[in-house]
Design goal:
Blueprint lengths: L1 H21 L13 E8 L7 E3 L3 E10 L4 E3 L5 E4 L5 E2 L8 E4 L3 E9 L2 E2 L3 E6 L3 E8 L6 E2 L3 E10 L2 E5 L6 E4 L5 E3 L4 E4 L3 E9 L4 E2 L3 E6 L3 E8 L10 E4 L3 E10 L4 E4 L5 E5 L5 E3 L4 E4 L3 E9 L9 E6 L3 E9 L4 E3 L3 E10 L4 E3 L7 E4 L5 E3 L5 E4 L3 E9 L2 E2 L3 E6 L3 E8 L6 E3 L3 E10 L2 E5 L5 E3 L8 E2 L2 E3 L9 E7 L2 E10 L5 E3 L2 E3 L4 E5 L4 E7 L14 H8 L12 E2 L4 E5 L7 E2 L6 E5 L2 E5 L1 E5 L5 E5 L12 E7 L2
Parallel strand pairs: 2-10, 12-20, 22-29, 31-39, 41-48
Antiparallel strand pairs: 1-3, 3-4, 3-7, 5-8, 6-7, 8-9, 8-10, 11-13, 13-14, 13-17, 15-18, 16-17, 18-19, 18-20, 21-23, 23-24, 23-27, 25-28, 26-27, 28-29, 30-32, 32-33, 32-36, 34-37, 35-36, 37-38, 37-39, 40-42, 42-43, 42-46, 44-47, 45-46, 47-48, 49-50, 51-52, 51-55, 52-60, 53-54, 54-60, 56-57, ...
């Protein structure tokens, strides 16, 4: 009874000690992903057998398993050992995984790494005798072409089974005609010249020779070439539809009169040919890349051979959509409850070009939480419904965009303001348009409100309707102070703008300078009213014209094209200054062409957009000369004289 009591107390003490050491009984020990959890070894050769004859070698491999269950081969870093080195030994002082089986007996093989010993493998060495050696070549009895190679292997037939033999086992390879066929200690044969040679192997210690395999070497003339698909060599139809910008790899399979076939390489002096170099390019390695829409027939030939290949038809199709990126307009990632925001998507295509998608382009929008942020699947307009986060994506065919997060917040609208969408948008030209935006000041900050959600009105200029913030400017604005009114959620705001006629004259140094026409031009974030002055074509204009010399005489010899130059006042409302042509990225042209009235003579002028450098343009009336003489056209911008 006393012993039982002592045992119970000891058990209780140990239990309390374990709990005290472990702390929370619900805590789970998590293995360090970078720590070695286990080490194990495997036999790799000799048709893996637990019983092998003395005299052969055995190769082993060692692997470690880490805490994240990843596996790594550490064979070369492990220390190898045998429990009986008189039976099995590692000749290279434990640093090699190749063991020599010395005499009949039994031994355990193990490896040591990172302070861990592997579980041992028991290896039995028998006194089995070698009966015969059989050799095989991977050319399967076919002739070898000059310069080609083949691999031979040897199988030893022992009294207890078959074992693969290698150089370490004492195997010696032989060729009867080394000037025709050479053979390496590993069993690799090389065809040197036309002729025949007998290949054999010998185990000197056992005094046993293998059977003989005859290898014939032929000139191996190339008979034909077949263009094959690098992704599926067995495909019989390798015709291709390839989008512009994408690439595809072809290879050439050569068929020889020896009956052999192999993939041809650039070293074989391959030459690839395309019937339409404008549609695609093809490299010396057979890599095809689409350049422009069209068809091309692809063939290949080999230097020094008259062998012909098949012809592959490649169609270059429209560039493929590879990536979609999305953003809001305006670009925000938080939105108060009740507001809407418009998403836009840009596609990147295989030709490297980007394209902004429009409604009707087959986009499908999706929100992962419609209770918080609901998005119209066709238009991409999102409405904030309740506080929280949602992720927005869009699909076009099989291509899906990355997610764009949006956070819906609760915020109070404090005030509303209306302002031009572009800086300088408060001055425009009759017959053009100008655009306004609405800014809501919330307790969380300023947010541009979707124009679709604003109630717009034209104020005093009733003949100039406002559609989603865009004003169509008419002659009514010449005699009135026009305004744009916006209303949202009980708040009202107003903005004013001015307009000029297309033929408004410039008063310069006391003379009236007739303009060739004013026009609205828009960059990424700024709107300009621009005009051209200069000599008229065909002398149809009368009166003086503003030339480069006029400007130089007024502003001085050094005329830089920035906004630091003196300003010329036209009247009480407007002023004009020089503007660099290449500042204008695009032309805001809604109504197209218009007529120019020049000193009473009517002439139809067509405004064209001309490249002025990568990503930028300028506009000018077609047909007007532009050179370094007095008839040089002066490019100016008009601003409000504030």
């Amino acid at each position: 009874m006393k012993k039982k009591y002592i045992w119970l107390m000891t058990t209780l003490f140990l239990s309390l000690f374990i709990v005290a050491c472990n702390g929370d009984s619900n805590r789970v020990s998590v293995a360090d992903p970078s720590s070695v959890q286990r080490l194990y070894i495997q036999q790799q050769t000799k048709l893996p057998l637990s019983e092998l004859p003395a005299g052969v070698t055995v190769e082993y491999k060692a692997f470690v398993v880490y805490g994240d269950n990843s596996i790594k081969d550490i064979t070369d870093d492990a220390v190898w050992s045998s429990s009986d080195e008189e039976v099995i030994a590692f000749p290279l002082r434990s640093q090699s995984a190749v063991a020599k089986l010395l005499q009949p007996g039994q031994a355990e093989i193990s490896a040591f790494y990172a302070d861990i010993n592997s579980a041992p493998i028991e290896q039995i060495v028998t006194s089995a005798e070698l009966i015969q050696v059989n050799i095989y070549g991977d050319n399967e009895g076919q002739a070898l072409g000059v310069g080609n190679t083949a691999a031979f292997k040897a199988i030893g037939e022992y009294t207890n089974g078959d074992v693969s033999l290698e150089q370490n086992d004492g195997l010696v390879w032989q060729s009867s005609m080394v000037d025709v066929v050479s053979i390496a200690p590993t069993g690799s044969v090389s065809a040197i010249q036309v002729g025949e040679s007998n290949i054999s192997a010998r185990m000197p210690q056992e005094n046993i020779d293998s059977d003989i395999v005859e290898v014939a070497v032929v000139e191996d003339r190339l008979l034909s070439i077949s263009i094959v698909d690098s992704l599926a060599l067995e495909r019989s139809n390798v015709d291709l539809s390839l989008p512009v910008g994408l690439s595809h790899q072809y290879q050439a399979m050569g068929y020889f009169d020896s009956g052999n076939s192999r993939l041809l390489e650039e070293a074989d002096q391959l030459a690839w040919h395309s019937s339409n170099d404008a549609a695609l390019t093809i490299t010396t390695e057979g890599m095809v890349q689409g350049v422009e829409l069209g068809f091309s027939d692809i063939t290949v030939s080999m230097g020094g051979s008259d062998a012909e290949s098949n012809s592959v038809k490649v169609e270059i199709t429209d560039a493929a959509l590879e990536l979609i990126t999305i953003h809001t307009e305006p670009n925000i990632n938080t939105l108060p409850i009740g507001l809407t925001i418009k998403y836009k998507a840009t596609g990147t295509y295989s030709d490297g070009k980007d394209r902004e998608f429009q409604s009707g382009d087959g986009l499908v929008w999706e929100s992962d939480d419609s209770d918080k942020a609901e998005i119209d699947s066709l238009t991409g307009v999102l409405k904030a419904k309740s506080i929280g986060d949602a992720n927005i994506t869009v699909e076009k065919g099989a291509v899906e965009s990355l997610t764009s997060p949006i956070t819906v917040i609760e915020a109070e609208l404090l005030s509303l303001s209306i302002e031009p969408k572009f800086v300088g948008g408060d001055i425009t030209v009759v017959g053009s348009t100008t655009e306004f935006k609405a800014i809501g000041t919330y307790t969380s900050g300023d947010i541009e409100i979707n124009s679709d959600d604003i109630y717009w009105d034209s104020g005093a200029c009733t003949n100039q309707p406002v559609n989603k913030g865009v004003v169509n400017v008419t002659e009514e604005s010449l005699d009135n102070i026009c305004s744009v009114i916006g209303q949202y959620d009980g708040k009202l705001a107003i903005a004013h703008y001015s307009a000029i006629a297309t033929n408004t004259e410039l008063q310069f140094q006391g003379s009236s300078k007739k303009v060739l026409g004013w026009r609205v031009a828009v960059t990424d974030d700024r709107q300009y009213v621009v005009g051209y002055y200069g000599a008229c074509p065909y002398n149809i204009c009368q009166g003086t014209r503003l030339t480069y010399s006029d400007i130089r005489g007024y502003w001085g010899e050094d005329i830089s094209q920035d906004n630091e130059n003196p300003i010329v006042t036209t009247d009480e409302s407007f002023k004009v200054s020089l503007l660099a042509r290449d500042n204008l990225a695009k032309v805001h042209d809604v109504f197209g062409n218009f007529d120019l009235v020049l000193s009473g003579s009517e002439a139809t002028g067509v405004w064209s957009r001309t490249e002025a450098g990568e990503g930028s343009h300028y506009i000018e009336p077609q047909g007007l000369a532009r050179d370094d003489t007095e008839s040089t056209i002066v490019f100016v911008k008009l601003e409000l004289n504030k």
